[in-house]
Design goal:
single chain, alpha/beta, Rossmann fold, binds nicotinamide-adenine-dinucleotide
Length: 249
Amino acid sequence: MATHEGRTALVTGAAAGIGRAYAKRLAEDGANVVVADIADGAETVGLIEAAGSAGLAVECDVSSAEAVAAAAAAAKERFGTVDILVHNAGIYPICEFKDMTFEEWRQVLAVNLDSAFHLCHELLPAMREQAWGRVVIISSNTFHAGIGGMSHYIASKGGLIGFVRSLAAEVGEEGVTVNSVAPSLVRSKGTTEGPHEELGLFEFVAQGQAIKRTEQPEDLVGAISFLTSDDAAFITGQTLCVDGGWVRA
Ligand SMILES: NC(=O)c1ccc[n+]([C@@H]2O[C@H](COP(=O)([O-])OP(=O)(O)OC[C@H]3O[C@@H](n4cnc5c(N)ncnc54)[C@H](O)[C@@H]3O)[C@@H](O)[C@H]2O)c1
């Protein structure tokens, strides 16, 4: 039997980028997958179905409590429950603090961090009730390195790491684990379209890693598969750096 047979996963930001790779892998593992994104998730649903699982695309801005509630309701209507949350949606504008407006700061915090509040408020009660649940929130190894030009982003990712630690303590006795995965710089839709290449960031980051090549979305999917499986039942409150050994803690 596939490891995730009979489970339903909701993956945010899965219409493109790394989230799409998570959705595809969870589908290959046998899970039904809900693609929650502001962009059209139809292409990802095609990949989920090609893997032999059921998929559902829901339009959802994760920074909106109402939109998250509607997405959770749509997922429950289609699949009955959501057993696994992979909160991957996030934005990472590069901007020095001296040039940053409060609106830009709030936008990053809203999309990256407030969203975790909305998603967990909606989805955790059913996981606790059924005494089985897996929450994985995508943070970033930039939290450990504290590089410049991303103070809003790194504040949001640090907030997620703290959130995971505390929430894990509250639900550990109820069969629900809460963890975080911290990637390095990954070649995704967002980083390919962003200034990362021009700024030489792919090469710079790769050289700082123990494994000196640029991370790909596929490098992350095994960790997501494992942390959302039965096998990871005794791992909670952790942040796993899947980053080619950039952080060596
Ligand atoms: N790419 C990297 O180098 C890298 C490194 C560390 C961490 N991360 C984290 O991984 C996650 C995915 O990054 P990526 O590179 O795949 O990004 P991406 O920009 O390629 O894709 C992000 C996806 O999220 C969606 N999205 C954006 N705002 C949203 C919102 N408000 N509500 C719902 N969906 C929204 C987009 O439509 C898109 O489909 C992010 O949380 C990011 O911070 C990325």
